[in-house]
C-alpha cells in the first residue's frame, strides 16, 4: 500500500496509471464482442499489422509522435482488415488461415522496416523497437490524454450500440431480417477493434495487446451467461489488469508495464477458471460429486432390496 500511495503521489505515474486502467477497460469491453463472434485472432492480427504502419509513418515524417503513429497504425489495420476479407471471399481458405497469412506478412514487413530504420540515417529512431513490447513509462501527458479520450469513446460507442452488437454477435440473420445494417455494424465493430489495438500499442506493444483484448473476455465468460454482465466484468478485469500491472511495474525497477499487465490479466483468468460459479473447475468437480452421491443414494435402497430378495 505504501508503494501504491507513493505511485499516486507522482503526477506522471498518475497519468500512466489511469491511462492503463482506461485502456484495460475499453479493451475488455471491445474484446467481449470479438470473443463471442469467434474472432479472437483478429485483434492479434491487427496488432501485428500495425507495426509496418508505425514504421512507414515515422519514415515519412521523421517524427516520433503517438498521434502520427496512431494514424499510420490505423491505416495499416484497415488495410489488413480488407486483406482478411478479400482472402476469405475470393479463395477457399477459411478465416483462421487468412488471419495467419495477414499476420505473418504484415509483421514480417514491419520487422524489415524496423531494421531498415535502425540502420538508416534517421536522427531519432531510437525507441521505435519499444513498440514491440510497449513502454508505458515513456508516455507523456498528451499521449495519456489521447489514450484516455479514445478509450472512453470506445466504451461510450459500445454502450450506445450494445443492442445491435448483441444481435450480430448471436444471430446476424435475425438482425438482418428486422432491418439492421449487419454489414455496416460488423465493419464498425472491426473499426473499434482496430482503434482499441492501436491506442494500446505504446503501453502494451504489438505482440501483447491481443492478450488484453481476449483474456478479460474469456475470464468474464466463466462467471456469467448474460452478455451485459459479461461485458461489464470483462471491462472490470481489463481495468484491474491495467491498474495492477502499472502498480507492480512501478514498484519494481526495470519491470516493463506491458508484460506485467498481461500477467495480471492471466492471474484473473486463472482465478476465473478455478472459481467460476458454473464453468469453473471447482464448480464442475463439486457438481460431479453431487451427481455421484445422488446416484449412490438412489441406488442404495434398490441394491439392499435385491439382496433381501436373493436371501429369501
Written overview of the protein:
- This protein is 80% helix and 0% strand.
- With 312 residues, it is an all-alpha fold.
- The longest helix is centred in the last third of the chain and has 31 residues.
- The protein is globular.
Task: Supply database-style keywords.
mainly alpha, 80% helix, globular
Topology:
Layout: H1 2-9, H2 11-36, H3 40-61, H4 66-90, H5 95-118, H6 141-160, H7 162-170, H8 172-177, H9 182-204, H10 209-221, H11 227-251, H12 257-275, H13 281-311
Helix pairs in contact: 2-6, 2-9, 2-10, 2-11, 3-4, 3-5, 3-9, 3-10, 4-5, 4-9, 6-9, 9-10, 10-11, 10-12, 11-12
Give me a quick take on this structure:
It contains 13 helices and no strands. The protein has 312 residues and is an all-alpha fold.
Name the helix and strand elements from N-terminus to C-terminus, one letter apiece: HHHHHHHHHHHHH
Structural class: mainly alpha
The largest pleated sheet is described as: none
**How far apart are the termini?**
74 Å
Amino acid at each position: 500500500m505504501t508503494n501504491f500511495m507513493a505511485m499516486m503521489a507522482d503526477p506522471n505515474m498518475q497519468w500512466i496509471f489511469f491511462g492503463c486502467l482506461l485502456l484495460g477497460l475499453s479493451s475488455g469491453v471491445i474484446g467481449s464482442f470479438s470473443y463471442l463472434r469467434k474472432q479472437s485472432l483478429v485483434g492479434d492480427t491487427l496488432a501485428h499489422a500495425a507495426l509496418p504502419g508505425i514504421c512507414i509513418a515515422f519514415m515519412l515524417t521523421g517524427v516520433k509522435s503517438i498521434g502520427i503513429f496512431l494514424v499510420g497504425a490505423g491505416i495499416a489495420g484497415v488495410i489488413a482488415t480488407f486483406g482478411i476479407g478479400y482472402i476469405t471471399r475470393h479463395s477457399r481458405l477459411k478465416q483462421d488461415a487468412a488471419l495467419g497469412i495477414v499476420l505473418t506478412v504484415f509483421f514480417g514487413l514491419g520487422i524489415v522496416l524496423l531494421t531498415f530504420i535502425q540502420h538508416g540515417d534517421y536522427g531519432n529512431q531510437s525507441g521505435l523497437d519499444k513498440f514491440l513490447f510497449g513502454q508505458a513509462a515513456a508516455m507523456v501527458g498528451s499521449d495519456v490524454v489521447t489514450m484516455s479520450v479514445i478509450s472512453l469513446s470506445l466504451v461510450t460507442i459500445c454502450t450506445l450500440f450494445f443492442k445491435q452488437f448483441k444481435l450480430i454477435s448471436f444471430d446476424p440473420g435475425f438482425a438482418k431480417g428486422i432491418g439492421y445494417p449487419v454489414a455496416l455494424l460488423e465493419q464498425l465493430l472491426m473499426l473499434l477493434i482496430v482503434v482499441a489495438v492501436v491506442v494500446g500499442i505504446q503501453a502494451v506493444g504489438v505482440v501483447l495487446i491481443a492478450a488484453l483484448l481476449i483474456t478479460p473476455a474469456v475470464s468474464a465468460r466463466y462467471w456469467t451467461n448474460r452478455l451485459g454482465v459479461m461485458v461489464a466484468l470483462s471491462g472490470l478485469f481489463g481495468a484491474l489488469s491495467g491498474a495492477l500491472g502499472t502498480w507492480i511495474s512501478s514498484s519494481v525497477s526495470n519491470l516493463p508495464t506491458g508484460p506485467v499487465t498481461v500477467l495480471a490479466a492471466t492471474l484473473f483468468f486463472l482465478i476465473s477458471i478455478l472459481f467460476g460459479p458454473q464453468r469453473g473447475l471447482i464448480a464442475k468437480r463439486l457438481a460431479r460429486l453431487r451427481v455421484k452421491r445422488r446416484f449412490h443414494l438412489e441406488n442404495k435402497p434398490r441394491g439392499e432390496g435385491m439382496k433381501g430378495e436373493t436371501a429369501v
